[in-house]
Amino acid sequence: MAGPVSQRVRNNLVAYAFLSPWLVGMLAFTLWPFLRSIYLSFTRYNIVSPPKWVGLANYNMLLTQDELFWKSALVTIKYACISVPLGIVVGVSLAMLLNANVRGMTLFRTIFYLPSIVPTVATSVLFIWILNPNIGLLNKMLARFGITGPAWLNTSPWAFYSLVLMALWGVGGSMVIYLAGLKDVPTQLYEAATLDGASGFRKMRHVTLPLMTPVIFFNLVMGIIGAFQTFTQAFVITPNGGPEDSTYFYSLYLYNRAWKYLDMGYASAMAWILFLMIVVLTALVFRTQKRWVHYSG
Amino acid sequence: MLGAIVFATGASTPRKYPDRKVVRFWHRWQGDWEKQVNKIVDAFNESQSDYEVVPVSVPGGGADSKLILGVIGGDSPDLMSMWSGAVPNMAANGFLTDLETLMTPDERRRFFKESYAALRDTGMYRGKCYGITIGADLMALYVNVKQLREEGLDPDKFPKTLEELEEWGLRLNKRDKDGQLTRLGFLLSDVAYVSRTFGGGFEVENGKPHIDTPENLRALEAIASYRKKVGYDDVLRFEAGLNDIEGAASWAFMHGDLSITYDGQWRVEELRKFKPDMEYRVYPIPPPRVGGTPLGGLVGGNYMIVPTSAKQKAGAWEFLKFWTGLDNPDRAATFYNMGGWLPYSPAVANSPTFQKWLKANPQFQAFIDILGSPNCKAAPPIANVQYLNDLIRRAEDEAVRGIVTPKQALQKIDSKFKEEQAKRRALGYDE
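Predict the joint structure of the above. Result:
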């Protein structure tokens, strides 16, 4: 009896030994800072000196006295509300187009996917040039139609919508997932719909989209989480929060509080409020899934 | 694999003098400036046999956060050039060494006696010296002589008042058939700086802010009204189209896109290198007709700091002395001239080497004049000066865009800053 048990223990130990680099990393660099930041959010902390307990003061000030906190939260919520649905519509539409059976389709798929693997910093710098009001590609194109394009990144509300536009640039990542979802739609359903005389639009509305909802749901959740954490593009393109603070994203303000003003306790409180916002929104989305997400099989 | 070996052995930095004590120096200069910094480092390494300074260029955006991580990780540089605005907060939070603890009594006496007051005070926090400059900045007006003459203006009879300068600026503007600016005559901006010319400034004395003052109001009104005259959007579009990279030969002034422009002293050296044939003048910004103060200025720029966790503080101080010229002003003059930097003291400015360079680059004299003026000041030495600077920048932007009046903008800075002070006090900060 001892033999198999000790063998099982040994196997488990070997498994944990192989897992240990990841486990140690996760515990030390993710879980511990995560838990520690709960404590730090109730302190005044500048990294070098020991944290000093201030109770709920950070939360109280954030919620009752900090105009920029609310401003940046609203900018971020507005961004999520616009960029996430837009990303889904564009991503699904692109996936449908790229699902067509035409020659050279793999090349088109690669071309549309490529921007999503370009680092955000590089994309941001590229967009600074594309959106330049005088010599930028976009305004040059608009000028051909007699339209004087705005100073995209220097005026409100255009700076905000420029970042929304930029988010679409990386839609290739979700598009690939939608494409995989489309491939999973059973062809016999289309055949049955065709026999019933359904038009192309009705097939998309009543066959494709319902069966794509699990993938849309996944991208919706990931999109919300990503949108609430938007930082790099705002930091690179409009590091000071943009015209009239229109691109002062929550994470940018959090970063400034932590690293510019050395207010780590305050920033930790901000991080926890952000975490709670994401958790609540994700929970709400999960609650709604019964009504609109259809899992086949 | 190679990366792992380098990381494991800590041998990422090639050493020229492996037997010497290493002084790790982080700085924020890149491109042509980095080459000048390396020359200064080489000169120091060749001048003595105890230390080897190893320079590392750390791009500006993340330099301060890298320092913070270095300090808490026990792997900080021994010396670093830091943006002056970050010095008070870093000092208040215990990241920086009080440099007076590294000075001998004689060095300390000479430093406090000899330094230009504004430069010295910019590195101070609560009466102690945490930063010494080797690359501080001041602003003055660069004037394109050819363009002025073409418009019938005499560059040698430069306006004595700001109002007259504004008239010149409007006259020098050029527009295309669609009314878009193709050349900008002059632009008034940066209220924190310009307010000094109006006899004002954003001061905080003993915790009491002096922000919503008549002088600052007049400065902001002048900025907003002049911008309105030129056209807010027109300037925005024009400026966005300029390929203006500091330290490179692409400065818009060099290419005739700006007739009179407000810029830093380092441009003198750039013009000498990249556009030696260009005829130009440099003048301090003239004060307004009423209530102005001549030679007003606000110091900012690169300050050398020694982190509290530095392992080789003595070596860092030796290098800092070498560069600043505290021990030998004439030798250090060469270094200041390399990058077109402001000398830390009149002793350097009056040294034969610096005077010789000044004779060849007489335009730099305007900056020396501003530096020596009692109206040239340091930013308030308060821990949350970066927060104040951010408030000022945002409020100026709103006033210039016409979202708020200049008065409302100043009131907003004042009330927001007081709120922040109250918040900090409630959290237990001293200020």
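Chain B has a mean pLDDT of 91.
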